[in-house]
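Chapter review: from sequence to fold.
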Amino acid sequence: MPLCNMRDLLNEARKGGYAVGSFSVANLECVMGVIAAAEEIRAPIIIQCAETRLKHTPLSMLGPLMVAAAKAASVPVAVHLDHGSTLPCVEEALRLGFTSVMFDGSHLPIEENLASVRKVVEMAKATGACVEAEVGRVGRGEDGSDSPTVAASLEDCFLMDQTGLDALAVGIGNAHGLYAATPELRYDILEQLTGKLNAHLVLHGGTGLTDEQFVKLISLGMRKINIATDIFRAAAMAPHGDDIFSNITSSAAAVKAITQKYIALFGSAGKAE
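The token string follows.
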């Protein structure tokens, strides 16, 4: 199947009442493992990379790999820029063929966040790419830096929905990285948003939530769920020896296994057909 637009995947997820997994990738092994998982259990997926991590794997190198892998996949795969923090990075991702981009202005005053997202929506029109933004604040930065969790304001969510974006990440007590304890999520915020936004709801910080939390979140309209930490841990902690090629295979297999676990939880297995 060809490279897909994230908008189309989320529209189908809304109709079917499931969520699409958006899996962070950092290298070839991650890309191979995630796509192999999706192909084996016939699931639509999103592969993503965050701007803050591009100092390790430049977008000019990682981006074309992601796009090429998506084009070669036998299931629908969208390619997404996660937590874009600068307009030049968003522009580069669109130029490389990403079918979705996120501008994260959650650290800005709401009017500045809105204005920046409107610019990105205009930029994305040239390719038809999907646009995601964030309201409130997901705890801890994508790179592990300290950042407080801020619950999303309903008013800000409705204002952001009017920018023409496609997906909205909301702060509901979730955080990037590993949780010290199971977080207390603000389901009440989702209950007041479900069915009232044009944009699809997105959850960041999925690693470490319980199966029951995922089920509840999806029932309340979460259509895109991000998983990064578990993917990176699987790749790094796979059995490694002194042969680089067996190490590649080992890392990809570990990523495949953890990805399939989440796909099953999100209810998207078999939805590629």
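Two observations follow directly from the output. The mean pLDDT is 94. Strands lie at 20-24, 45-50, 77-84, 100-103, 130-135, 167-170, 200-203, 222-227.
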